[in-house]
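Batch manifest, entry 17 of 40.
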Amino acid sequence: MTILSRWSVLLLAGLMLTGCSLSLLKLPASPEANLFTQGLDNYLASGDLTTLQQLPRQYPQGVWRTQAEGIVEMANRHQAILKEQDQRLLNLQKNDELTRCRQEKIDLAQDNLLLEKTLKRLKDVLIDTELQAK
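Output type: structure tokens
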């Protein structure tokens, strides 16, 4: 990525963070610039990259092609990172749930042993009571 492209991406990121629209920059009124402006405004408003993705196809030699491709690449990387983080979170939640289930199984097994012992004692008491009643 060239220095100009990096600065453009940095400027665009700054615009995104401040909530500004590219239409406020009064870019030269070329069809390519208008498409770039529209694409960036669409992306900022709704996350839709369709217009920015069209720009390199419509203007393969255009001056805004590199910036549009950079923004699309950055957005795609961002989406991939978010998807990866969501997967990690899901895995952590599954691990936590598995740990809880294992602990619950251990607790239930201990409760079951205690109930079996109690049941045996009650049977012994019942037998003793019946023997004493005779």
